[in-house]
Amino acid sequence: MGRLLDGRGPNGGLNELGREVIAEMNRLRMLVDLSHVSDATVAQAVKISKAPVIASHSSSKTICQHPRNLTDELARAIAETGGVVGVNFVNEILDQTSHERASAGRGSVLTFLNQPTSYRPEELDRVAAERLKGFFMDQTNRPPFERIIEHILHLVNAIGADHVGIGADMDAARIPLAREGASTARATIRRSPTRSAAEVWRTTSSRK
Q: Are residues 55 and 36 in the same domain?
């Protein structure tokens, strides 16, 4: 991916090769997916693509400032191409507290992995794997299921229901699914003060 960017680091945009790749993907009718790129790259890609683009597993930066997430402006720009934003269910992408805690946790894990240790060399891989497993499986700061609904409803209000999808990213991490199941989603949407939220629920229910 780095070969397609302009060399300005994680906040940079596309270089000439990147623009050529988007043009070729358009020609081949391949979807351009912007979930793992910078804001600058999203802004450029929506302007040069001749076909709809998507962010297959991103959420709203208004609710959580994770770099994977999109500002309302960029989400609208994707929608204006005819594309879709797929809401990601990963804890730290949904929830600001989880994001901050995960960022701090990664720092402590990296410090641990790089500091001198008394473990024998043949034990280092096992010890590192155990520490990393503990970090990734830690659910002490698991956000509520309602956070998923907040992202969906915010994006529906910002860019329209036709441009909001589900990109749960279930292979990446445990997700904050409520044990109560669909009844929790229904109750959460009914509690929403926005008329569009109720309309979304009625529309999706009527399609069953």
A: yes
Taking 70 as the threshold, does the pLDDT of residue 153 lie above it? yes
Do the strands 85-87 and 164-166 form a parallel or antiparallel pair, or are they unpaired? parallel
Q: Kindly state whether residues 65 and 11 are assigned to the same domain.
A: yes
The SS3 call for residue 59 is coil
Residues 91 and 101 in one domain: no
Each residue of 28-56: b (16+ CB within 10 Å) or e? eeeebbbbebbbbbbbbbbeebeebbbbb
What is the side-by-side order of every strand in the sheet holding 85-87? 32-33, 53-58, 85-87, 164-166
**Average pLDDT of the segment spanning 113-140:** 69
pTM of the model: 0.75
How many domains is the chain built from? Answer: 2
Name the residue range of residue 22's domain.
2-95+143-206
Where is pLDDT greater, at 81 or 188? 81
Rounded to 5°, angle at Cα 38 from 37 and 43: 100
**Domain shared by 49 and 75, yes or no:** yes
Clarify whether residues 170 and 81 are in a common domain: yes
Over residues 76-103, the mean pLDDT reads 92
How far is the CA of 61 from the CAs of 12, 117, 166, in angstroms? 18, 39, 16
Distance CA 171, CA 95 (A): 18
pLDDT at residue 121, as a whole number: 77
Residue-wise pLDDT tens digits, 25-44: 999 999 999 998 999 999 99
